[in-house]
Design brief:
By secondary structure, the chain is of the alpha/beta class. The chain contains 17 helices and 13 strands. It has helices at 5-17, 21-25, 30-35, 38-52, 68-74, 179-188, 200-203, 205-209, 216-233, 249-260, 277-291, 295-312, 331-338, 342-347, 366-376, 415-425, 427-443; strands at 55-58, 62-65, 80-88, 91-99, 105-112, 129-136, 143-150, 156-162, 193-197, 237-247, 267-270, 353-358, 383-388. The strands form two sheets. Strands 6-7-9-8-10-11-12-13 form an eight-stranded mixed sheet, sandwiched between helices. Strands 1, 2, 3, 4 and 5 form a five-stranded antiparallel sheet that branches. α6 links the parallel β8 and β9. α4 (38-52) packs across α12 (295-312) and α9 (216-233) packs across α10.
């Protein structure tokens, strides 16, 4: 095999298609091999097959010089980024690779295929707010973000949005959907200043991947606290009413953020998971294996079960190879995560909380996750919990069992969720809105 990046990337996809994951691992540069094993890659690949069906076609690769941040992190000046679009029975994705001048892979990820462009949700009141680019944090790991600021005098309440687990951008982009952009636009049009930002694992993926000691706390807390301070310093924002709203893993970590920054006014937790993440991974992969059973699904179940058992083991240490652990996260990452109890951390906070859960969510569930919030915070009168029976993990409304394929079609955050969060953040405005609505009903 030559060192042509496009040929190498195409060969990698063909190997994966044929189940030759050990052969792919042989193409990994040492830093990537230390983090990702053939088994980890197999689990990720076969999970996609369980989610959106078998491969039906491989598209034409697109190559370009790798981003400067990738080059800096790898130390490879000739690094090339290659994206190979793959079509499945019920959707698609892009296999993104960075190939160095020797033909080795410095990076590999499975990214959503963008099939349709995002469009604003019907409830977005675009003329009622402005948006500005901001920088969150400082130094080499500063990240770009967006401030959505209501027009008018203010001062406005504020909220910092935290994405779920994985290298999400500021909008939590997934295929044609941008749930955090939906949320930001919905709230900004209702008098809330909203700050969202690219996760450090998105903006500086290669630098983070090169650090075996990187933890969940480092993934979230420094930039979250910097974003809180940025909002508090803005003259149009009420510094005493800056909140944190996290989705999925962002909801799990939000109590830790508030513990690190006591000035946070309150928390909004959207589908915040409480079950240990490695246990959740086993449960979800088993669920997907029942949705689309077969040898690949069963293999994925066996692999993730084995990896999760190592997280629970007393032998887990910072030196445990990331390639042997779920998602290729380091031993240090799992130790940090294993030692964190989001419910106990939340219970120790003197902060009001709004906890929201989708009834159709199979990833973070009423039974496995919300029940723990309810039990641990039952004594708190300042905690409000709401379940949206028709909503899935992304708070997209629908009917019947939720499936991963649902995320592939363009949807928007449930407007009821927007309304409930806006009214919780701006209680006085909510009372006025309800009064006006009641008057209109009386007139009719």
């Amino acid at each position: 095999m030559g060192a042509d990046p496009v040929e190498i990337a195409t060969a990698v996809v063909e190997m994966a298609w044929n189940g030759r994951f050990t052969d792919i691992e042989k193409l990994f540069a040492p830093p990537l091999r230390a983090m990702v094993s053939a088994e980890t890659l197999q689990v990720a690949w076969e999970s996609q097959i369980s989610r959106i069906g078998a491969i039906s076609a491989v598209g034409t690769p697109i190559s370009e010089p790798a981003p400067k941040s990738w080059v800096t992190a790898s130390g490879k000046a000739g690094l090339v980024k290659v994206g190979v679009p793959v079509t499945y029975e019920r959707g698609g994705l892009t296999v993104v690779m960075s190939v160095d001048e020797t033909g080795l892979l410095q990076g590999l990820q499975l990214a959503p295929a963008l099939t349709e462009q995002w469009t604003p949700p019907p409830y977005a009141r675009r003329k009622k707010f402005d948006e500005h680019d901001v920088t969150v944090g400082s130094g080499a790991l500063a990240v770009p973000g967006t401030l959505s600021l209501p027009r008018g005098r203010g001062p406005w309440p504020g909220v910092v949005l935290l994405s779920g687990g994985g290298p999400f951008d500021r909008d939590a982009t997934s295929g044609p959907n941008k749930p955090l952009k939906d949320l930001a636009w919905g709230l900004a049009g209702r008098g809330v200043a909203v700050l969202r930002f690219d996760k450090v694992t998105c903006a500086h993926a290669e630098q983070v991947a090169a650090r075996p000691d990187f933890t969940m706390s480092e993934e979230y807390i420094p930039h979250s606290v910097a974003a809180i301070h940025l909002l508090q310093r803005h003259p149009a924002v009420d510094a005493g009413r800056v909140h944190v709203a996290g989705h999925s893993m962002g909801g799990k970590v939000a109590p830790r953020v508030a513990a690190a920054e006591p000035s946070v006014a309150g928390l909004v937790l959207l589908a915040g998971d409480t079950q240990p993440m490695h246990h959740t991974a086993v449960r979800v992969v088993r669920h997907l294996a029942t949705v689309n059973p077969g040898p690949a699904a069963q293999s994925a179940v066996e692999a993730i079960t084995r990896q999760a058992a190592l997280v629970d083991s007393a032998h887990l240490s910072a030196e445990t190879p990331a390639a042997d652990l779920p998602f290729g996260y380091s031993g240090a990452y799992w130790l940090d995560l294993r030692g964190y109890d989001p419910v106990a951390t939340a219970a120790a906070l003197d902060k009001p909380m709004l906890i929201l859960q989708g009834g159709r969510d199979y990833q973070v569930t009423v039974k496995d996750d919300l029940s723990r919030w309810q039990a641990g915070l039952a004594h708190r009168r300042d905690v409000t919990i709401r379940v949206y029976d028709a909503d899935d993990h992304m708070f997209f409304s629908g009917t019947g069992p939720s499936t991963p394929g649902d995320y592939e079609s363009p949807q928007h955050l449930d407007p009821a969720v927007i309304t409930d969060i806006a009214e919780w953040l701006t209680p006085d405005q909510g009372k006025i809105a309800r009064f006006v609505a009641s008057v209109k009903r009386l007139k009719h």
